[in-house]
Amino acid sequence: MARITFSLNELLAILISNRVLPPQIVxxxxxxxxxxxxxxxxxxxxxxxxxxxxxxxxxGNTVVFEFTLVSSxxxxxxxxxxxxxxxxxxxxxxxxxxDVFVDVGKLLEQKNIRGVRVREIHFEDGEFAIVTENV
Length: 135
What we know:
Elements: E1 2-7, H1 8-17, E2 25-31, E3 34-40, E4 48-59, E5 62-69, H2 78-88, E6 93-96, E7 99-103, H3 104-110, E8 116-124, E9 127-134
Antiparallel strand pairs: 1-9, 2-3, 3-4, 4-5, 5-7, 6-7, 8-9
């Protein structure tokens, strides 16, 4: 068993350096308890969508984030965005507005990380604490 603790900025750096984020996500940055980024689309009408994610909970093997559109004018585009993201998100991500579900087991499997399972994830005072165990 291991306990790994890191900040939101460090998490973002790990995700970027390991190419976990889809290529449509650009300009990611951490601020407070949220990760802000831009989703690049193939649409002429709406080529960039500013959004943010906030950690909500770890449930079983799934991390749940709250997905927020930064501009209130974009709320009309939510159903369109939902259709577009279903096609382009990795297999370990499920989008059900306003939540994003990340299956940690599938993520580790896709990245060829074996012999470890995430048992708990906590987020307090701007730091994540992940508890793992051997499988």
